[in-house]
Specification:
The chain is of the alpha+beta class. The protein is built from six helices and 18 strands. The longest helix is centred in the N-terminal third of the chain and has 18 residues, at 2-19.
């Protein structure tokens, strides 16, 4: 009888998802809650944009059968001129941490107050803007080659190098405390477009790469960012700085289910530099603390930035 009820539950969920338009599915967080939060965001520099029209999509921790793995930040083309990317984020809820998928829309919505860097400082996006059918880059934030990209401007007033955090989740112990603003609530009600095919393939490539797993890289992936989506080797690939990973957040009580460097390229100002200290987050259980202490001993200390491209 119980098995029959479970089957009916999952069938109802599938039918519900099929009834939701594709442009709205990106707004829904559906899946199994993860009972331990994601690691701190790694520190890395932004690769040079491949050319005009590309928009930066920050890296993030995803979750799979082998635990958390890193999806490198990368440049992608918007599905339609005028659309901006709202990054996904991890949020703490009843039973654990849930992933809220990113999406494309006319305005940037709520992404948990996470400082992903390079224009995504926790609220909105200041790395560039659409003017008509062309995207203009803010060279105070975006790393572009002015020989190839001519639509640029400089706005230093939007750069904030103070109180920078590497926290990668919203809510719970040690998470950000941001709540959606009125503008972000309005953006949530707009028509959204899910991740592009290139973004989906980029994610899939990261999910099958053992080196992206937190258990292997301890929070400092060798491919933290890449100029071209899905390309994890060769020119344009950026490794994370050897920073010791921050303490992981407290585990939830239970799991739950819920519906290339160039002389002409101007480096962006530092949104979350290598000098930042790991975010202070709550500890997990005793066994997990012991595991973290072992991993922290193996990790290298922070590197000082001297004349290098700015880090996230």
């Amino acid at each position: 009888m119980m098995r029959r009820l479970n089957w009916i539950h999952w069938l109802s969920l599938v039918l519900l998802l099929l009834a939701v338009p594709a442009t709205s599915q990106a707004q829904i967080a559906v899946g199994v809650a993860v009972h331990i939060g994601p690691p701190a965001l790694p520190v890395y520099v932004q690769p040079v944009a491949p050319g005009p029209g590309y928009i930066w999509t920050p890296g993030y921790w995803a979750y799979g059968p082998d635990g958390y793995f890193w999806v490198p930040g990368t440049w992608v083309l918007a599905p339609t001129p005028g659309l901006l990317w709202t990054p996904g984020y991890w949020g703490f809820g009843v039973g654990g941490y849930f992933w809220h998928a990113g999406y494309w829309g006319p305005h940037v919505g709520f992404y948990g107050g996470i400082n992903y860097g390079f224009g995504y400082g926790g609220v909105g996006f200041v790395g560039g803007e659409w003017r008509g059918g062309s995207f203009f880059y803010n060279r105070a934030v975006a790393n572009v080659n002015v020989t190839n990209v001519h639509n640029t401007y400089v706005n230093n007033t939007v750069v904030n190098n103070t109180n920078v955090s590497r926290t990668s989740f919203n809510g719970g112990t040690g998470g950000t405390t941001a709540q959606p603003t009125t503008a972000e609530q309005a953006a949530a009600r707009e028509t959204h477009t899910p991740a592009t095919t290139a973004q989906t393939q980029h994610y899939q490539a990261a999910s099958t790469n053992p080196g992206m797993r937190y258990s292997a890289n301890h929070g400092s992936p060798t491919v933290a960012a890449t100029a071209h989506s899905g390309n994890f080797s060769g020119p344009g690939v950026i490794a994370a700085h050897g920073a010791a990973p921050a303490a992981r957040p407290a585990a939830a009580n239970a799991a739950a289910r819920t519906p290339a460097n160039n002389a002409n390229a101007r480096p962006a100002n530092q949104n979350a530099g290598a000098a930042n200290q790991p975010s202070k987050q709550g500890g997990a259980g005793t066994s997990h603390q012991a595991q973290q202490q072992h991993q922290n001993k193996q990790a290298q200390p922070h590197e000082k930035e001297q004349g290098k491209k700015p880090s996230r």
